[in-house]
Amino acid sequence: MKIPVIYRTIGFFLISGLMVPTFSDINYYFVLNVVKFSKFTVSMLSIVGYISLLGGVIMYNKWFKHREIRTLLKYSLILGFFSQIMNLGFILRLNK
């Protein structure tokens, strides 16, 4: 029985979303109360994130459309790993 690649991809994101905890509320508290960012700065960082998302969609349509989904997911996991390591360094205040 062969499962189409789109269903495997959806299954990956579903399982990943169920297994990986999110700390957005804790991160929001930390950035506002511990690091002392203003609400405006947090809002601007959110806007930068959405603009980066749009840039990623444009990059995908321009350069990565021909790549295999499995390869793109592998790159996404590697980048996410390093991003979380940098986030941990920020939370542990190693950037001082």
Structure report:
With 96 residues, this protein is an all-alpha fold. It has one domain (23-91). It has helices spanning 5-19, 24-34, 39-64, 69-91.
- Helix and strand content put the structural class at mainly alpha
Major sheet summary line: none
Strand-residue proportion: under 5%
Overall helicity: over 70%
Name the poorly predicted regions: none
If you average the pLDDT, what whole number results? Answer: 89
The total count of helices amounts to: 4
Element-by-element helix/strand order: HHHH
Short overview:
Helices cover 78% and strands 0% of the residues.
Descriptive labels:
4 helices
Task: List strands and helices in order, with pairings.
Blueprint (H helix, E strand, L loop, with lengths): L4 H15 L4 H11 L4 H26 L4 H23 L5
